[in-house]
Amino acid sequence: MLAVVPPPVTVRVPAKVNLHLGVGDARDDGYHELTTVFQALSLVDEVTVAASEEPGIEVSGEGENTVPRGEANLAWRAANELANYVGRTGDEPKVRVVIRKGIPVAGGMAGGSADAAATLVGLAALWDLDIARDELAEIAAKLGSDVPFALSGGTALGTGRGEELVPVLCRHTFHWVLAFATKGLSTPRVFGELDRLRDNGEPPRVGSHAPLLEALASGDPRQLAMLLGNDLQAAAVSLRPSLRRTLRAGVDAGALAGMVSGSGPTCAFLCEDEDAAVDVAAQLAGTGVCRTVRVAHGPVHGARIVGGEDSTRPTPPQVHA
Ligand SMILES: C[C@](O)(CO)[C@H](O)COP(=O)(O)OP(=O)(O)OC[C@H]1O[C@@H](n2ccc(N)nc2=O)[C@H](O)[C@@H]1O
Ligand SMILES: Nc1ncnc2c1ncn2[C@@H]1O[C@H](COP(=O)(O)OP(=O)(O)OP(=O)(O)O)[C@@H](O)[C@H]1O
């Protein structure tokens, strides 16, 4: 009898920017306590998962030569974690994972995390799993601090090491310009640099995130621009001083504000509207302060099957006593 092979599943998954990134002190487990507001942007990776007798990873697109193909790929780790969770033990998962990258690698936009989240959603459908989004989020959190947000998307407040999420009201579409750097920055190195700077007399910390939540609800990009803040920016700039020039160039080109995205080195510029973003992108591209420039908008939804049904069960409503 012939086995039925399910058709491949393609998932589109967004990059993130941290509109507010407050970093607390280092914990005993080496992580830092965060208070962050994530926004998912229309800059995406696409991941196709397919049943295959030749398991493995293929990568093309943005930074393709710097992405590991084997077990070190976060998407492959996601496939293994999900297989273990649902009891598909034994050999490595018999799947081929094809990643088309649009998100810069080691760029502070959670590209690897995005691919892991997309793989979880894709395999849940490919394997026809009866699994709730909440269960996927738990597996996601084991893979990395940013993976749960890549699943949920939108705009969300993240606490803990960034993996505990609450959705945030955001009435408006915001327009961004992203400046990609020639070379990535290592996330642990940037956190380490912040610890070092703080030992030597503390760069000022971002304040409360509450006013930023109000600006998001109001939908006014000018108000939001004044409230963007990232504790990791000083550390990223300390490791890569040329980012200062990039940040200045974006604002000189007409952006409302510029910031380092997460652990950098990508710089994100908030613009008044879509036309302004196109103008800023064109000007910035001519200045030679970055490798390449993209426009994007947010918020957008999290990892989602392209042209298909999501097989994961919605989480049942929580009842609190
Ligand atoms: C900078 C952010 O992108 C902001 O959203 C995230 O905090 C980083 O998330 P991520 O890349 O998914 O990070 P993980 O893979 O969980 O951790 C990588 C390393 O970053 C550092 N790390 C990460 C998250 C956190 N809250 N504190 C940390 O100190 C730790 O050295 C950790 O070993
Ligand atoms: N699928 C993947 N895509 C990109 N990088 C990956 C992937 N899997 C593993 N990596 C490795 O992880 C490192 C960090 O990549 P990633 O693009 O996730 O960084 P990042 O965007 O700075 O992460 P974050 O914003 O979550 O801190 C890369 O240098 C690469 O070696």
From TrEMBL:
**Alphabetical list of SUPFAM superfamilies matching this protein:** GHMP Kinase, C-terminal domain, Ribosomal protein S5 domain 2-like
Q: Which residues bind ATP?
A: 104-114
User: Which residues belong to any copy of the GHMP kinase C-terminal domain?
Assistant: 212-286
Q: What is its EC number?
A: 2.7.1.148
Cite the GO molecular-function annotations of the record: 4-(cytidine 5'-diphospho)-2-C-methyl-D-erythritol kinase activity
| Limits of the GHMP kinase N-terminal domain | 73-154
User: What pathway annotation does it carry?
Assistant: Isoprenoid biosynthesis; isopentenyl diphosphate biosynthesis via DXP pathway; isopentenyl diphosphate from 1-deoxy-D-xylulose 5-phosphate: step 3/6
Q: Which keywords annotate this record?
A: ATP-binding, Isoprene biosynthesis, Kinase, Nucleotide-binding, Transferase
Name the chemical reaction catalysed here: 4-CDP-2-C-methyl-D-erythritol + ATP = 4-CDP-2-C-methyl-D-erythritol 2-phosphate + ADP + H(+)
Indicate the residues that form the catalytic site.
16, 146
Per the entry, what this protein does is: Catalyzes the phosphorylation of the position 2 hydroxy group of 4-diphosphocytidyl-2C-methyl-D-erythritol.
Family from the record: Belongs to the GHMP kinase family. IspE subfamily.
> What name has this protein been given in UniProt?
4-diphosphocytidyl-2-C-methyl-D-erythritol kinase
Q: Which organism is it from?
A: Haloechinothrix salitolerans
